[in-house]
# Entry
Amino acid sequence: MNAVISVDLPQNSYEVAIAPGSLSQLGAWLQPLGLGRKLMLVSNPMIFRRYGEGAIASLEAAGFDVCHALIPAGERYKTLGSIQKLYDVALAHRLERSSAVVALGGGVVGDMAGFAAATWLRGIRFVQVPTSLLAMVDASIGGKTGVNHPHGKNLIGAFHQPRLVLIDPEVLATLPPREFRAGMAEVIKYGVIWDADLFQQLEQAKRLDQQRYVSPELMQTILTRSCQAKAHVVSKDEKEAGLRAILNYGHTIGHAVESLTGYKLVNHGEAVGIGMVAAGAIALQLNLWDADSNRRQTALIQKAGLPTRLPAGLDLEDIIATLQTDKKVKAGQVRFILPTQIGTVIETDQATPAVIRKVLLAMAEAA
# Structure
């Protein structure tokens, strides 16, 4: 059953289509968008081996002239050096201002393909075709594109909205279990920040750690409600001037953990799980929410098979220092998104280094 969700913006509105089997019909989905004839498909080698030839065949059957560029899988390759390789392919195939980039892959591919599209010839169009749960419910929607700096995640980037986000739930059947769990972190995030009913439905599920244990009905609910939450927030605040900051729940400490472990030890979703546990504990210390809500959040993160403790060997002072490079720092104060109840969060700078240190110490000791 197809679902279409609108992302309504002052300019460049677009749709998120959730349509089983749509990847094999990619060309037909792109035909009505008014794109130029030349397309560059961006993917990583593993995804391309599985889906690339079929996607290109569908696009060519629809009349598009397609080239492709592959970038290595993994957050540590999300660099300006990888972007340069995309520019090289764009130049070799003479991509024009009417051309478009198609991102076929997870969040890393989408972020880099989008940034290349935002900056090639000062901006060409692009389409998101996410293949991971994390990209489907979060990274592909909202127009955030970019790459990492050696000293911080996503410090280099641009807002560049896609023309379409096309989600084919059937590709989740081939997603590695660890990547599925990573996506569940973002789904749980939506439950905490926005959708208490979604949170309760996740609590009622027997298992959330592998896709095969999640019923098709619950999977459709997860995709639809997560995308609706993201689309609603982005529609209200396209460039993170206010409300959109709530989407960073769990990401403040999460990004620090990712960065300090070289993007090798934990993936993005695992880091967000750790970050949500930390944010919940900070909220408890500040009396913003109650112990039962905090327990429910931690239990749901554990049910999804995600870590709730800091990786061994991390220096707590390094984490606190890294927080100062976070994009949400204002006047030197780290601003956290913290929960007040399941379904509601606030932005605050009341989390002092002492409170953060206390929470991190407890998470390290229990590791």
In short: The longest helix spans residues 216-236. The chain has two domains: 3-174, 177-365. The two ends are 43 Å apart (CA to CA). The mean pLDDT is 95.
